[in-house]
Design brief:
CATH class: Mainly Beta
Low-confidence stretches: 6-25
Order of helices and strands: HEEHEEEEEHEEEEEEE
Structural class: mainly beta
Shape: globular
CATH architecture: Sandwich
Mean pLDDT: 82
CATH topology: Immunoglobulin-like
Number of domains: 1
Number of strands: 14
Helix content: 10-25%
Largest sheet: 6 strands, mixed
Oligomer: single chain
Radius of gyration: 23 Å
C-alpha cells in the first residue's frame, strides 16, 4: 500500500518542479538595468557658437575621451534604459538641459548615412518609453524665450518592445539648451547613436 503513496508524492514533486511555458508566448523582462554615461562639455566653446549649432564635437558621452559623441553608441534591449543626466559643471547655475529628440534611419540609397527622419511618436509608442522632468519640478527649467517650454536636466529612454527580432540602429538628435549664470541659451544639437538588440 505504500507504493501508490510514494508514486503520488513523486507525481506532485514533478508537477511543482517542472517549468511550463507561458500560454501567450510572452517573456518576462530581464533584470532592469540602467546605463548612465558620464557627460562632459566645453561650456565656453559652446556659448561661443550661435544657437542652432551642432555641438557634438564639444560633448563627451561616457568615460572614453577618445570616442566622440557622434560615434558614442549605446546598445540596449528590452527592459534596459539609458539616462543622460545634466553634467556637473563649474557653477551652481550651469548645466545641460534637454528639450527634444529626433530619430533618423539609414538612407537606403546611401548606406551608412542616417538622414531619413523617423516618425518619432510612432517610434516612442512601439519601441521606447521617454522620460523628462515634469514642468515645475526641481529637475526642470522654463525657457522664457520659447513660450516657457519646460527643459529637463535629464533624458531617459527605456526599451519597452519585447518582440525585436534583429538589431535596429538609429542616429538620434538631442536638442539641448545651456543653463548658465546669464540664463538659458539655445538650442543646440548633439547626435549620438543607439542600437536596440533582440532580447535573446
Amino acid at each position: 500500500m505504500k507504493k501508490p503513496i510514494y508514486l503520488l508524492f513523486l507525481f506532485i514533486f514533478l508537477l511543482t518542479t517542472c517549468s511550463f511555458g507561458d500560454d501567450d508566448g510572452t517573456q518576462d523582462p530581464p533584470f532592469q538595468s540602467t546605463i548612465r554615461p558620464e557627460i562632459s562639455i566645453e561650456l565656453d566653446d559652446i556659448l561661443n557658437r550661435p544657437p542652432g549649432s551642432d555641438i557634438t564635437d564639444l560633448v563627451v558621452l561616457g568615460d572614453d575621451n577618445s570616442v566622440s559623441a557622434s560615434d558614442f553608441t549605446v546598445e540596449l534591449q528590452f527592459g534596459q534604459k539609458i539616462i543622460l543626466d545634466q553634467p556637473m559643471l563649474l557653477g551652481l547655475n550651469e548645466g545641460l538641459l534637454y528639450s527634444r529628440l529626433s530619430f533618423f534611419e539609414e538612407n537606403p540609397s546611401d548606406p551608412g548615412v542616417f538622414d531619413v527622419p523617423v516618425d518619432t511618436l510612432d517610434l516612442y509608442g512601439s519601441l521606447f518609453n521617454k522620460s523628462f522632468a515634469d514642468p515645475g519640478s526641481n529637475d526642470a527649467v522654463e525657457f522664457p524665450f520659447d513660450n516657457d517650454r519646460s527643459l529637463s536636466s535629464f533624458l531617459g529612454l527605456e526599451v519597452i518592445a519585447d518582440d525585436i527580432t534583429e538589431a535596429v540602429e538609429y542616429k538620434y538628435e538631442i536638442e539641448v539648451a545651456i543653463l548658465n549664470p546669464d540664463g538659458v541659451t539655445g538650442y543646440y544639437t548633439i547626435d549620438p547613436k543607439i542600437i536596440v538588440n533582440p532580447s535573446n
